[in-house]
Amino acid sequence: xxxxxxxxxxxxxxxxxxxxxxxxxxxxxxxxxxxxxxxxxxxxxxxxxxxxxxxxxxxxxxxxxxxxxxxxxxxxxxxxxxxxxxxxxxxxxxxxxxxxxxxxxxxxxxxxxxxxxxxxxxxxxxxxxxxxxxxxxxxxxxxxxxxxxxxxxxxxxxxxxxxxxxxxxxxxxxxxxxxxxxxxxxxxxxxxxxxxxxxxxxxxxxxxxxxxxxxxxxxxxxxxxxxxxxxxxxxxxxxxxxxxxxxxxxxxxxxxxxxxxxxxxxxxxxxxxxxxxxxxxxxxxxxxxxxxxxxxxxxxxxxxxxxxxxxxxxxxxxxxxxxxxxxxxxxxxxx
Length: 335
Known about the structure:
By secondary structure, this protein is α+β, with helices and mostly antiparallel strands. It contains 9 helices and 7 strands. Helix 2 (22-38) packs parallel to helix 4. The protein is elongated and about 100 Å long. It starts with 5 loop residues before the first helix and ends with a strand. Residues 10-20 and 291-295 have low confidence and may be disordered.
């Protein structure tokens, strides 16, 4: 059985009321596709076809044209009308092709930027890990044990950063493929998620002289969700606060229970964002701070938003530029 072509779809959509020699118009249609593939400038090709379209339109006699009565016209007029329809169809194809090409070009550039940042981060982290290991080896050979704990903590921190980046990239892939699945269980959002992350990030918090202040209404804040993915969510919020918060400031976490909703406010004092940047903060590849030696892949908050929404929750951001940044997470507390 012969496979239905794109042309057949076009013919059914645009030319179904016209009796025509489909072979001839199929040849013209395929010729148009060849031009689309060969001409790098879609706008130039579109202009050429529209100019031809207008010329053919000018050649038509001054009369009311009805596709319902097309078979009553003479053959010359029928051919001109059919050609106009075909040229209009090709113009639409070229316009859509131009949009697709532009979007692909922008997406490819973002992925190239992502690869560049990830490569840079991995190279720097692995270089540092290698250097710390060389120092440890040399000191052990010399039977010197001073500052070994500090060196191993640095290695631990860099390794965890790499694991977090890999986890973010993997989650992004699973989200886009629709393969990320929740494995729900009951856990305490403070005891099982936030406190372990504070311990995990103790070294960078101490280095930046930042403290985590937790305010909660009750002794227990139980949530029914995916424990691993909630670690991903709050690890990204912590890393964001560490990277963009000011040194010697507090990271304030407030937890409220409201109408079967668990609401977590995550506040850090730092640069914040401008009002026009807030609506785009959860978009993939969004990066607003690219100075002072900082780098990020622009996927953390995109992943955070998707994970929270998978749990039936919401997240929003508020900010006072140059003062503070706050993320408000709302999770359905039905268990």
